[in-house]
Every structure is written in C-alpha cells, then in structure tokens.
Task: inverse folding
C-alpha cells in the first residue's frame, strides 16, 4: 500500500512540474495554443489534487508520520500558496487563437513566478523533511 | 527499504534534491515538447514545432545532465553505484536509452530548426518522428518513476 501511495504521490508531483514548465513557456513568450493550455491546466489540476490526496493518505498510512508534523503542515501551507498563485496566473494566460505569444500583464507574471517559487519550496520541504 | 526511504540521513538531501529537480525539469520539458508537437500534428504550426525543439534543447538536455549528476551523487552516497538491485538497473537502463533517444530527437530537431531559420518550412516527417520518440521516452520515464518509488528487488 505504501509503495502504491508513494508512486501516485510522486507521479502527481511530476504532473505539477510538467504543468509548471508548460506555463513557464507561456510566461517566457512561447506560443500559446488551446490544446497546450488545456493540457497544462489538466496537469496542474490533476497534479495538485493528487499530491494533496495521496500526500495526506501517506501521512495517515505510516506510523512514522503524523498529519500535524511541522514539515507536513509547512508542505500543506506551501501547497495552498502554490495553488492560489497558480489559479491567479492561469486566469491571466488564455490563448488568443492563432498560436501566438500572449501579452501577459505584470500581475499574472508575478503570480506565475510565485507559483514556481512555492512549488520549489514545497519540493525542498518534501525531500528535506525538516524535523522528521 | 521502506524504512530507509522514511528515515533518510539528512546528508542525502542535497543530492536527492538535485536528482529530483533535474528529473522534473527533464520530464516537464519533454512533456512540453510532446504536447506542442501533438498540437502541431494537423496544423503544422511552425511556432509550435520550434517551441518543441527549443524545449528539448534548453529544458530537456540541461534537465538530463542535472538529473544524471544527481543520480550518480546520491548513488555514491548510498553506496549503490555498483549495485545489482533491479530498481537501480531499471533506472540506469531507462536513463541511458532515454538519453540516446533524446540525442536523436535533438539532431532531427536541430536540422529542422536550421531549415526554418533559412526561411523554409519545418519538416513534418521529422516532427512526427520526434513526437514518437519523445512520447516513448516519457512512457519509459513513467516506468523509471515507478521503479524509483516502489523499488522492486
């Protein structure tokens, strides 16, 4: 059970990373297409939900972890910050229909790069597990 | 092995972070390339094809280098460099074959980008071959993620 949960948790994190890379290409001036935008949104959504659900399940499944451990609470806070920034960034990145680059406003760009920052911080906390 | 994964020495943190960060950049860049090429399959959009090749060169290649350096670093920390464990074998096997397919994709992409830079149309045949190769590599990395997390012996 532990290995299956860990696999789906890590796989979800890879979905999140793939979504972030695609959104970063939009933020850096790459072409935005309806299909690529849709897949980025699906990867971000499924990855976000998967990391949360399987992460909490893992914490409940293992006697070594408690849901109120400091690093798990820190990870949950970072997850919510990344999701909040991501929602704001995603709203500002919509395709115009001809595969051209988007004119992204400053707030959307900041929200996107904050999402990247929170995700990297989340990755550090999950690997380091401070206090565990 | 589960207990080792749960109670990991803190001096393994940085090499593991380097390994995972590289793997995420690699998989993310490969996904961007695959998605862009699939989106360009019917339209033949030169912009999307160029984005896919740029993603392979500026994302997947550096990601692979970081991921592989991290892999060697963490393997040496865990004294697993010469291990016969199945999950280590799967990891190295997928990594080596993946690198070969990435290089083939980069060469095909590079020729196509050069053609576009000279004002020509992107090669649709090259784009479709690279779509197949990149998709294959992504499936292989999915197997590698399974092996790294479940650690079959």
Result:
């Amino acid at each position: 059970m532990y290995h299956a949960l860990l696999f789906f948790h890590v796989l979800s994190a890879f979905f999140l990373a793939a979504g972030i890379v695609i959104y970063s290409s939009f933020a850096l001036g790459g072409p935005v297409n309806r299909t690529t935008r849709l897949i980025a949104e699906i990867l971000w959504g499924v990855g976000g939900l998967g990391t949360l659900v399987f992460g909490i399940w893992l914490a409940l499944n293992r006697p070594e972890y408690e849901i109120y451990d400091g690093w798990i609470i820190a990870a949950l806070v970072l997850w919510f910050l990344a999701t909040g920034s991501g929602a704001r960034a995603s709203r500002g990145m919509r395709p115009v229909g001809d595969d051209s680059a988007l004119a992204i406003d400053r707030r959307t760009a900041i929200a996107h790069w904050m999402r990247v920052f929170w995700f990297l911080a989340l990755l550090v906390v999950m690997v380091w597990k401070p206090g565990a | 092995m589960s207990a080792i994964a749960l109670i990991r020495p803190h001096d393994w943190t940085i090499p593991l972070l380097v390994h995972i960060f590289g793997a995420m950049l690699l998989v993310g860049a490969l996904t961007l390339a695959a998605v862009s090429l699939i989106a360009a399959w019917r339209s033949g959009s030169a912009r999307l094809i160029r984005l896919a090749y740029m993603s392979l060169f500026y994302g997947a290649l550096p990601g692979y280098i970081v991921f592989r350096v991290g892999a060697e670093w963490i393997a040496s920390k865990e004294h697993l460099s010469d291990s016969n464990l199945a999950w280590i074998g799967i990891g190295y096997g997928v990594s080596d074959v993946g690198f070969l397919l990435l290089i083939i994709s980069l060469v095909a992409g590079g020729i196509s980008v050069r053609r576009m830079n000279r004002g020509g149309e992107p090669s649709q045949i090259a784009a479709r071959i690279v779509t197949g190769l990149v998709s294959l590599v992504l499936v292989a990395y999915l197997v590698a993620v399974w092996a790294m997390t479940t650690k079959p012996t």
User: Anything to note?
Assistant: Chain A is about 75% helix and 0% strand. The radius of gyration of chain A is 16 Å. Residues 34-61 of chain A form the longest helix (28 residues). Chain A has a mean pLDDT of 90.
